[in-house]
TrEMBL record, chain A:
Lineage of the species this protein comes from: Bacteria, Pseudomonadati, Pseudomonadota, Alphaproteobacteria, Hyphomicrobiales
Family annotation (CDD domains): ABC_NikE_OppD_transporters (cd03257)
Family: Belongs to the ABC transporter superfamily.
Keyword line: ATP-binding, Nucleotide-binding, Transport
This protein's name: ABC-type dipeptide/oligopeptide/nickel transport system ATPase subunit
GO biological process, any: transmembrane transport
Ranges of residues in domain ABC transporter: 2-236
Superkingdom of the source species: Bacteria
TrEMBL record, chain B:
GO biological process: transmembrane transport
Keywords for this protein: ATP-binding, Cell membrane, Membrane, Nucleotide-binding, Transport
Name the UniProt record assigns to this protein: Peptide/nickel transport system ATP-binding protein
Pfam families from the UniProt entry: ABC_tran
Cellular component GO terms, alphabetical: plasma membrane
InterPro entries given in the database record: AAA+_ATPase (IPR003593), ABC_Ni/Peptide_Import (IPR050388), ABC_transporter-like_ATP-bd (IPR003439), P-loop_NTPase (IPR027417)
Compartments it resides in: Cell inner membrane
Gene Ontology molecular function terms on file: ATP binding; ATP hydrolysis activity
Species annotation: Gellertiella hungarica
């Protein structure tokens, strides 16, 4: 479903994504973990058509992407939840506007009902429906961004730290929701997170990124058994467990 | 005497159905220690922090029976007086750091400006100190990042820049709202060391708002648990596992584990907690 071959991204002279290749099956849930600043968000943004200059081959389903052009048909099928929900929400549009707009653009009916059931699904009380982004808490904004991405029932969901601003009980609700959608509708996830237990719960495989390069691709069983292969992968697991990191 | 004392702090916002209370009478005191605040999304953690710095947006209203910082009565300060306190004495790392940085100033200029708070230095010395600070927060290529604008850094780099800026100010009280949520576990540890160093070396008081239960349990001295505008439980950080309040128990239960194999995670029965 997502096929990336030798993706490279430069910002000026900084080479921030280096020969990244991934092959993610339909219905698979795949995690990108790794160092802060290692290029995880950049990979997702390239897939979402948010970056103009990149090189390599990227196929989403049967559509081949090219830099600078994002085929319209993909907008409905590929949705992204950005790392900074504040920045991706329009400051003068209400929650309702954010959820309604995609429905309008794509001519979907039953809008009122869809919005209400989506608010329920992400655990936002109805009183928030007509609030502006700055009138919400950080976690409430993050849930608006997740709700918006789900409105169009996409095939591929690109999630950048989707639960980092949520308390663990709300996080559990969102993770259960995502897992359920995947089982029901065969959704494909590419998820960026720093939270390794979230990967264990939701994902089948993970790629470990450092300085723009993939260090390893591992199955989730390896993570659960603390058995990652790369030095950096082991360092992350050790740090997550509060043990002094082994020196590479 | 405590560094900070808060009694019966309330924050209200007007709505169609009258005033709505989002912080409903919070009381706590803080010495030269690390206090963690955890709790439900929307429970009033950020509003509590912002109220202490006079940063509640209009038309919000703040009241308290007592809100005293180092002998200063915060309930009587006007905006001008708050502005003088903020930065050098009281500082806050806001929850969305990239949006609290100045979008038209480079990272280097912004940290440099914070440094200048402590007196003049040559341009060259200032730049050297900024680069050293970027290195301290584990930015791998400080020379490049020095010249970047906020929208050109990653989520976790933005958080580290913000921490670097606040740390050079060496305030007496720092409120850090989700300061490390976008950091990988390995960088996180080193950044927390910097905050810890300020607490140990300069006697700074630290309030750390976070959803990361393991992190606050390991890095703080004491923890407040908030639910629906109130503090529902206070405990020593090391004893979080023995917390008794049903909300706190619920939180601990819904935490996924590294060897997670459950098909669904337990969630809270919010109805039954609603009346608390
Ligand atoms: N518009 C831009 N201009 C210049 N450099 C950029 C730009 N956007 C990103 N970068 C650089 O690309 C690198 C990778 O950034 P990216 O946001 O992909 O990291 P990340 O892995 O998502 O990190 P984090 O976990 O901290 O969010 C960083 O060094 C960043 O400074
Ligand atoms: N301008 C506003 N008008 C009305 N209500 C507001 C406004 N700003 C925030 N609120 C409400 O105040 C409550 C407390 O918000 P606060 O930001 O303190 O939550 P929080 O505990 O920090 O949550 P999170 O963990 O999600 O960041 C929320 O329910 C929020 O919707
Ligand atoms: Mg990122
Ligand atoms: Mg908050």
């Amino acid at each position: 479903m997502i096929r990336i071959d030798k993706l490279n991204v430069h910002y000026g002279s900084a080479h921030v994504v280096r020969d990244v290749s991934l092959d993610i099956a339909t219905g698979e849930s795949f995690a990108l973990v790794g160092e802060s600043g290692s290029g995880k968000s950049t990979v997702l943004k390239a897939l979402a058509g948010q970056i103009r200059d990149w090189s390599g081959t990227v196929d989403l389903g049967d559509v081949r992407l090219s830099p600078g052009k994002h085929p319209r048909e993909l907008i409905r099928r590929v949705q992204m939840v950005f790392q900074d929900p504040y920045g991706s929400l329009h400051p003068r549009r209400t929650v309702d506007d954010h959820l309604d707009e995609p429905l309008q653009i794509h001519g979907l009916g039953d809008r009122d009902q869809r919005i209400l059931s989506m608010l329920d699904a992400v655990g936002l009380a109805r009183k928030f429906r007509f609030r502006l982004p700055h009138q919400l808490s950080g976690g409430q904004r993050q849930r608006v961004a997740i709700a918006r991405a789900l409105m169009l029932e996409p095939d591929i969901l690109l999630l950048d730290e989707p639960t980092s601003a949520l308390d663990v009980s709300v996080q559990a609700e969102i993770l259960n929701l995502l897992k359920g959608l995947r089982a029901e509708r065969g959704l494909t996830f590419l998820l960026v997170t720093h939270d390794l237990p979230v990967v264990s719960f939701l994902c089948d495989r993970l790629a470990v990124l450092k300085a723009g390069q993939i260090q390893e691709i591992a199955g989730v069983e390896q993570l659960r058994h603390r058995n990652l292969g790369s030095a950096y992968g082991r360092e992350l697991v050790a740090a997550a467990e509060g043990v002094a990191a082994e020196q590479a | 005497m405590a560094l900070l004392e808060v009694e019966n702090l309330k924050v209200r916002f007007p709505s169609e159905s009258g005033m709505v209370e989002v912080v409903k009478g919070v009381s706590f005191s803080l010495g030269q220690e690390r206090l963690g605040i955890v709790g439900e999304s929307g429970s009033g953690k950020s509003m509590t922090g912002r109220a202490l710095l006079g940063l509640i947006p209009k038309p919000g209203v703040v009241t308290a029976d007592r809100m005293q910082f180092d002998g200063i009565d915060l309930t009587r300060l006007n905006e001008r007086a708050f502005r003088r306190l903020r930065g050098a004495r009281l500082s806050m790392i806001l929850q969305d750091p990239k949006f609290s940085l100045n979008p038209v100033m480079t990272i280097g200029e912004q940290i440099g400006e914070a440094l200048a708070f402590h007196g003049r230095m040559s341009a060259r010395e200032q730049k050297q100190r900024v680069l050293k600070m970027l290195e301290a927060v584990r930015i791998t290529d400080p020379e490049r990042v020095y010249r970047l604008y906020p929208h050109e850094v990653s989520g976790g780099m933005g958080q580290r820049v913000m921490i670097a800026m606040m740390a050079v100010l060496e305030p007496d009280l720092m409120i850090a709202d989700e300061p490390t949520s976008a950091l990988d576990v390995s960088v996180r540890g080193q950044v927390l060391e910097i905050l810890d160093d300020l607490v140990q070396r300069t006697g700074m008081g630290l309030i750390m708002i976070s959803h990361d239960l393991n992190m606050v349990a390991r890095w703080c001295d004491r923890i407040l648990v908030m639910f629906n505008g109130r503090v529902v439980e206070t405990c020593a950080a090391g004893k979080l596992g023995e917390a008794t309040h049903p909300y706190t128990r619920g939180l601990l239960a819904s935490l996924p584990r590294l060897d997670e194999t459950r098909q669904t995670l337990p969630v809270l029965d919010r109805q039954s907690l609603g009346g608390l």
